[in-house]
Amino acid sequence: MLTGCGPGRGDVSGVVYYKNKPLDGGTITFYDEYNGVSSSTIKPDGSYADIHVATGTAKIAVATPMAIRMTGIPAVKTTPIPPKYADREKSGLTCKVASGPQEHKVELD
Predict the structure, then answer these.
(1) What is the dihedral of CA 19, 16, 44, 71, to 10 degrees?
(2) What is the predicted pLDDT for the residue at 4?
(3) Spatial contact of 30 and 12, defined as CB atoms under 8 Å apart
(4) Helix (H) / strand (E) containing 102
(5) pLDDT score of 65
(6) Is the pLDDT of residue 72 over 70?
(7) pLDDT given at position 2
């Protein structure tokens, strides 16, 4: 392998907010310029950490689970967000990823 080929990598972490409050669950996904995808779980405090995201501008999608009720299993409750955020092309969310660790706050309205 040749050194320096391909994109660098960054570790992105931060908090996802919805209406100025930490989002209490879901998934955040980074779609890089090279058709790579990297996802992370959003914790109940809104925090996430996604490692090895390709450097450059990444489009972001945020999704929360649908409330599905099954007999005998408690439903997972998370704050519902508008469906546009689950689509990287419609969300309007991006992140300029640099090499190494960095923080990126995600704000949904």
Answers:
(1) 70
(2) 55
(3) yes
(4) strand 100-103
(5) 86
(6) no
(7) 45
Instruction: Give me the domain span that covers residue 43.
Output: 9-66+77-100
Check which CATH number belongs to the domain holding 92 and give it: 2.60.40
Report which of 106, 109, 95 is spatially closest to residue 27, judged by C-alpha positions.
Answer: 106
Q: What 3 state SS string does 29-93 have?
A: EEECCCCCEEEEEECCCCEEEEEEEECEEEEEEEECCCCCCECCECCCCCCCCCHHHHCCCCCCE
Q: How many other C-beta atoms can be found within 10 angstroms of the C-beta atom of residue 77?
A: 11
- Band of the pLDDT at 1, cuts 50, 70, 90? very low
Please give the tally of structural domains in the chain. 1
